[in-house]
Amino acid sequence: MSAILTIAEAARRIAARQLSPVELAKTHLDRIRRLDPQLNAFLLVTEERALADARAAEARQMSGGLRGRLDGIPIAHKDIYSTAGIRTTAHSKLLEHNVPTRDAHTVKKWADAGTVMLGKLATHEFAFGGPSFDLPWPPARNPWNRDRFTAGSSSGTGAAVAAGLILGGTGSDTGGSIRGPAALCGIAGIKPTYGLSSRAGILPLAFSLDHAGPMAWTAEDCGLLLQGMAGPDPEDPASVDRPVPDFTAELGKGVKGLRIGVVRHFFERDHRASDATRAGIDAALDFYAKEGAEVRDITLSPAADYHAVGYLLMVTEAFALHGPWMRERFMDYGELFRDRVSLAATVSGPDMIQATRRRRLLCREMAAAMENLDVIVSASQPGEAPRIDSVPKWANMEKPSFTMPFNVTGFPAISICTGFGEGGLPVAMQLAGKPFTEPTLLRAAHAYETAMPWRARRPAMAG
Amino acid sequence: MLARAGLTLTPEQVKAILPGAAIFRDMIARVNAPLPREAEPALTFDVEQG
């Protein structure tokens, strides 16, 4: 077996008894052995656990007792997701020897669905602050060019999926940490609606902005993985108690009649994206229009307004959590985390109140703009991956982010690959929807992906 | 402000933060731009949840 499968295809073959979960796990463990030394995507490979999971999945396969489409699928978890009995470090010296006693809610849900856990994945320290070279482990590298940045903070997941080390993995997203690595690594990643998937057992960064979600090669695979994550959890105060839809139910229905708004000023004026990024978005919009969608430009507040509110809340909430450690063990944090989060000390109480008031206005604005729309489109990242050794320390503050607006509002958003730009590096677009409209969002993403050739191309190193 | 927040940093550590602090000051100013009179105060209390 040489081709890297999607989850959907692997699930079909497992269900048809054409693919052994044990052989699939061994194939991916072998890929990790061969390729990960060049990528640093994994902080820990759990080979024994993977083979045990795979043998259990194979027993269910042979007895006709498969638990669903995730049964036997090789995955790994970002190392802020607690895994019982398995080291969970947040890529930080502070938790270098931390071994949780319980699985995160979503880790347990994926395990219950039959996934095969291959290990724990690199992240930026505590999901914020990379790329860092002063932590106990090196940063993950981009499989499309190992001198390039993966973005973060779900950096290991982005790299591991793109290189075919895993078929899917977990990410978390406080300001774009799923969608950023998805974009720069040329994969798909969805930040679900706030409250749709539990954060219980995931090391937090900023409670009011943190989201848990999946990353995979395709939007369809993201839908399958999200199916295994979503659902109410009384241990997460933000968790929403509502029925979980079938996230793949609308796939294949096309985009005819979908109403698509384009926040063009985000990526043309507020923070001008690269030529290839803008060309990719324009080509996607042409595709949607030709397929019968209504496409029109819309105007929101400047991206910098969303970014300022989100960033202020993010570092202040992070400092509320990390303050006790930062006061005692400042130098045990990496430089990027400690210096960025220290800025929260300059935030006053009234600043926080104003940020919260402004956040509400921005939420209302976006809801109003989307009243007669199904999807809004913007960029995911400003361009192709920069060199990993030349990312400025304050890069995530200097220019407004395209992803933060949907953390501020909590609306769902997915990043998908729209082709390749300078140096053969991937570029991407971001599709966002109204709260709890993930099936429609995935439908629009899937329609584009299946009509374009980009999913047939993998990084050269992935073989 | 750093000391008031309990961060006792060396001059070198403070110096490392200063460029970011300048950018962050602009963000704080943006957040504090006048809001419409009808903007609700932040929700800090829900009478049904206590």
Please supply descriptive tags for the structure shown above.
heterodimer; B: 50 residues; mainly alpha; elongated
Explain the overall architecture.
The complex is a heterodimer of chains A (463) and B (50). Chain A is built from 15 helices and eleven strands. By secondary structure, chain A is α/β, with parallel strands linked by helices. Chain A has one domain: Amidase signature (AS) enzymes, CATH 3.90.1300.10. In chain A, strands 1-3-2-4-6-5-10-11-9-7-8 form an eleven-stranded mixed sheet, sandwiched between helices. In chain A, helix 2 packs antiparallel against helix 3 and helix 5 packs parallel to helix 6. Chain A starts with 6 loop residues before the first helix and ends in a 12-residue tail after the last helix. The model of chain A has no long low-confidence stretch (mean pLDDT 97). Chain B has 50 residues and is an all-alpha fold. Chain B has a domain of 29 residues. Chain B has one helix and no strands. The longest helix of chain B has 21 residues. Chain B is elongated, with a radius of gyration of 17 Å. Chain B starts with 10 loop residues before the first helix and ends in a 19-residue tail after the last helix.
Strand content of chain A: 5-15%
Radius of gyration of chain B: 17 Å
What general form of chain B does the structure show?
elongated
CATH architecture level-2 label of chain A: Alpha-Beta Complex
How many structural domains can be distinguished in the coordinates of chain A? 1
Lateral strand order in the biggest sheet of chain A: 1-3-2-4-6-5-10-11-9-7-8
Total DSSP E strands of chain B: 0
Order of helices and strands of chain A: HHEHEHEHEHEEHEHHEHHHEHHEEH
Question: How helical, in percent, are the residues of chain A?
Answer: 25-40%
* Structure classification of chain B: mainly alpha
Q: Largest sheet of chain B, if any?
A: none
CATH topology of chain A: Amidase signature (AS) enzymes
- Most extensive chain contact? A-B, 37 and 30 residues
Mean pLDDT of chain A: 97
CATH superfamily of chain A: Amidase signature (AS) domain
Mean pLDDT of chain B, nearest integer?
85
The termini of chain A sit apart by 12 Å
CA radius of gyration of chain A: 20 Å
